[in-house]
Amino acid sequence: MNQENLVKREMEIKVTGYQIIEKTVKKTGNSGRIYVPNEWIGKRVKVILLEPEVNEDDSNVGGSGI
After folding, report:
1. N or C, which end of the chain is more exposed by having fewer CB within 10 Å?
2. Which tens digit of pLDDT belongs to each residue from 16-57?
3. Residue 26 · residue 34 · CB < 8 Å
4. Distance between CA atoms of 37 and 32, rounded to whole angstroms?
5. Cα–Cα distance between 1 and 24 in angstroms, integer?
6. Residue 65 CA, distance from chain mean position
7. Where do the structural domains in the chain lie, given as residue ranges?
8. Which residues contact 21 (CB under 8 A, 6 or more apart)?
9. d(Cα 9, Cα 3) in Å, to the nearest integer?
10. For residues 8 and 21, what is the distance between their CA atoms, to the nearest angstrom?
């Protein structure tokens, strides 16, 4: 399924793990990045988006129209 066709809505996710770090994604070229501890190199991790995405088309919704 194409990601553009996915409905993006808030959901509850249950994850079992060993550590948790909350960070803000930084811009790098055409993508984003986060740094994790060196001890995590070669380990499996999951990244969960904690805030809704804002599309450029959505940024004008409810605006004053000025």
Report:
1. C
2. 999 999 999 999 999 999 999 999 999 999 999 999 988 756
3. yes
4. 17
5. 28
6. 29
7. 24-50
8. 36, 37
9. 13
10. 23
